[in-house]
């Protein structure tokens, strides 16, 4: 009877946890849909959904050519940033790690700054600025992946510090380029580095969708190894996890995804720090569940921040990267001080 009662209790707990998980996902989907719809209809110019169905009307142009691509890009970019932050926090076992810790975004910014100073047009359908940013991100990511694959077995802490050093170096080179550029070029670099979701059409959306799907698929494919890695590198190695292979696979995919993202939007910080920590409390640490949750939650968060940025009173318009930085700075201090257990 005891065994039966224990089994029944375990089954009840399991069913309760499953219902809670389903409820959390339903809430995430509902929040994402509400934020997306509001972002489509609200802005400097309000849009009527019925009028937007009239071909050639002002509302149709605003909704289908401007608002919808921007919202879709925000959903993809936010999801990619959140998934990237989740992967970095797991691989480096550091709750303060996020997509820009390793210098990948700084590498992208350096590539874009080179093109802004030197001048450039379009190639293969994308601006040279985007292509150079993508190349810069891949270059920095390649250095980190190379260190991860080295035979010396570089530890996670060392990789994290190497990323910080690369980020500082890239920032110094960006300042050097700014000092050699014209006033317009300096302004362009600063504006680009603030991050923006302003797009016209769906070219950028399609580009980012491909890389977001690739990076998320790699993360889900390594879900078991990443779950075991949460217990520690020594324990994971003892249970048969090839740490070098997991690091290389995850870091390569995430670096490419972040590079593709920054190439389109510019650097947008702190989404990858905030969203994974919040969602772990809602759906747990398992990557099979947490990865899609981050895609939804990150997208909703970034679209909401962009909505705030573009609905401020006239003359106060802010790039979305500034809004996420303002929120993220406070959240970072909260984590650093251990309010959520991260500091401990």
Describe it for me?
The protein is mainly alpha-helical. Helices cover 74% and strands 1% of the residues. The protein has 13 helices and two strands, in the order H-H-H-E-E-H-H-H-H-H-H-H-H-H-H. It has helices at 2-41, 58-91, 104-118, 128-149, 156-180, 183-193, 203-221, 223-229, 233-238, 243-265, 271-283, 287-310, 320-336, and strands at residues 122-123, 126-127. Strand 1 and strand 2 (126-127) form a beta hairpin. Residues 6-10 and 340-344 have low confidence and may be disordered.
How many angstroms does the end-to-end distance come to?
Answer: 42 Å
Please mark out the parts with pLDDT under 50 across 5 or more consecutive residues, or reply none. 6-10, 340-344
CATH topology type: ABC transporter involved in vitamin B12 uptake, BtuC
Shape: globular
β content, as a range?
Answer: under 5%
At CATH's second level, what is the architecture? Answer: Orthogonal Bundle
Number of strands: 2
User: How many structurally independent domains?
Assistant: 1
For the biggest sheet, the summary is: 2 strands, antiparallel
CATH class: Mainly Alpha
Write down the secondary-structure element order: HHHEEHHHHHHHHHH
Count of individual helical segments: 13
Oligomer: single chain
Key features of this structure:
344 residues; mainly alpha; ABC transporter involved in vitamin B12 uptake, BtuC; two-stranded antiparallel sheet; 2 strands; 74% helix; 1% strand
Q: Summed up, what is this model?
A:
With 344 residues, the protein is an all-alpha fold. Helices cover 74% and strands 1% of the residues. The protein has helices spanning 2-41, 58-91, 104-118, 128-149, 156-180, 183-193, 203-221, 223-229, 233-238, 243-265, 271-283, 287-310, 320-336, and strands spanning 122-123, 126-127.
């Amino acid at each position: 009877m005891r065994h039966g009662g224990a089994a029944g209790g375990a089954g009840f707990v399991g069913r309760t946890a499953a219902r809670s998980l389903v409820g959390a996902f339903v809430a995430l989907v509902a929040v994402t849909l509400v934020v997306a719809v509001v972002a489509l209809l609200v802005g400097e110019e309000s849009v009527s959904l019925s009028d937007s169905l009239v071909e050639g009307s002002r509302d149709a142009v605003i909704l289908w050519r401007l608002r919808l691509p921007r919202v879709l890009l925000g959903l993809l970019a936010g999801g990619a940033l959140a998934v990237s932050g989740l992967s970095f926090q797991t691989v480096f076992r550091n709750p303060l790690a996020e997509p820009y810790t390793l210098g990948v975004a700084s590498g992208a910014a350096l590539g874009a700054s080179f093109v802004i100073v030197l001048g450039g047009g379009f190639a293969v359908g994308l601006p040279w600025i985007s292509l150079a940013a993508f190349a810069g991100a891949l270059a920095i990511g390649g250095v980190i992946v190379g260190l991860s694959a080295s035979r010396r077995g570089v530890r996670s802490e060392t990789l994290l510090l190497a990323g910080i050093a690369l980020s500082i170096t890239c920032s110094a080179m960006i300042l050097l380029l700014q000092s050699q550029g014209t006033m317009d070029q300096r302004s362009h670099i600063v504006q680009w580095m603030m991050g923006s979701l302003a797009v016209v059409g769906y070219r950028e959306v399609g580009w980012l969708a491909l890389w977001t799907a690739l990076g998320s698929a790699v993360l889900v494919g390594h879900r078991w190894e990443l779950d075991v890695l949460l217990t520690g590198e020594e324990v994971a190695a003892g249970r048969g996890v090839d740490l070098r292979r997991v690091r290389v696979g995850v870091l390569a995919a995430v670096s490419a995804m972040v590079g593709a993202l920054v190439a389109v939007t510019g650097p947008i910080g702190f989404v990858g720090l905030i969203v994974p920590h919040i969602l772990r409390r809602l759906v747990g640490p398992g990557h099979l569940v947490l990865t899609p949750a981050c895609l939804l939650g990150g997208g909703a968060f970034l679209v909401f921040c962009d909505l705030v940025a573009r609905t401020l009173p006239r003359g106060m318009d802010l790039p979305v990267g500034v809004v996420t930085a303002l929120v993220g700075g406070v959240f970072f201090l909260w984590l650093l001080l251990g309010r959520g257990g991260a500091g401990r």
